[in-house]
Design goal:
Elements: H1 6-11, H2 19-42, H3 44-52, H4 59-88, H5 91-108, H6 117-139, H7 142-145, H8 151-182, H9 187-190, H10 193-212, H11 227-236, H12 242-271, H13 277-305, H14 307-327, H15 331-359, H16 365-393, H17 398-416, H18 421-429
Helix pairs in contact: 2-8, 2-10, 2-12, 3-4, 4-6, 4-11, 4-16, 5-6, 5-10, 6-16, 8-10, 8-13, 8-15, 12-15, 12-16, 12-17, 13-14, 13-15, 14-15, 14-17, 16-17
Amino acid sequence: MADANAPLLTSALNPGVARREVFAWSMYDFANSGYTTVVLTAVFNAYFVSVIAQGAAWATFAWTATLAVSYLGVMLLGPIIGAYADANACKKRLLVLTTIGCVAATAGLYFAHAGNIALAVVLVIISNFCYAIGENLTAAFLPELARPEALGKVSGWGWSLGYVGGLVALGLCLWWITHAEKQGIATSAAVPATNLITAAIYLAGALITFTWLKERAVPAPPSEHSAWVRLRHTAAELGRYRDLMAMFVCGSLYQAGVATIITLAAIYAQEVMGFKTKETLMLVLVVNVTACIGAFGFGYLQDAIGKKRALMLTLLVWLAMVGFAWFATTPGLFWVAANLAGIAMGSSQSAGRAMVAYFSPVERSAEFFGLWGVATRFAAICGPLTYGAVSWASGGNHRLAMLITGTFFIAAIVALTRVNEARGREAALSPSA
């Protein structure tokens, strides 16, 4: 960052936090975004439906069910892993392990070809589980790095750099597919190598994180090392964190919609709008640019107008996006919908992470982000499965499934009205009973 911005950057950080450490933390967002962009959103999901499952009527449902199994694992184990990480001050060590798991499983998808459904399903479950646990763990570092009044902008820095990572990964994949086609290689034969590209970028970015990011947490007394004991303690205190619980409900609802869009955007573009693989990749490239802008800009807006107000605004943008996507019959209108999704995607996900950090006691951040992971992964099960079930039951009516997705955002707006930002922060700062 330029020297003129150094005072602004420094004032956003907690004492003793170096700027390069925040950059290293943000680089994990850069590293793992290629996985969500290429594997879950733009390339491999469509490849799974059209090539691996050979376009069967149940293919879209099989893809959503595969993701649901991985998210169920995150829901069951995420809070336990988070509580263990807090008790033993080992967030970074566990982050290294989950990164290795995701990178290895993603690279293994190179070997999943037509008809290899079992192999593809197992590797997607492993890679997505490790990705999601890693996302929880890296988010738990946020309150250690940023001052409370700057959580929004620092979260936005990371999330916006994450979309740059998605752009780099997708751009390289697009270059490879185009190059392969010029060499006479069919697109379906070129797609598997995109998993190797994605895995390499993930590993390269994460190595920067592991080099400079510090573990500041202090291990708890031996009597509090049990993750189960810590979770039971948290369960007994949930009444103190009613605004965080309300945020979990809100997050479950709007993340159901977000997960649906992320998981099925390429399929919707392909099945409804008739986009080809290269057109879909170009669309996602542009959407990553708008998402980067949304995450960065709304981070500052969130700190200026309040986290709740900023999140409410992004949910309204999501509703507008669903309306445009449902109504669109031409590529132009669908491009409008897609870019609205980009703005809302970057801002809503960054805002959610900052709000959870704001409402969480710093010494229990990994545990609380593990619980946030339960909320968001439950959403990631319900949203795409709902979409897949509706499209299946309606004979492939993706427009109807998209319209129903909008109800998640409406419900999230209602849940957000129950969140009191000041009261939630006070609970985070109060000593445990």
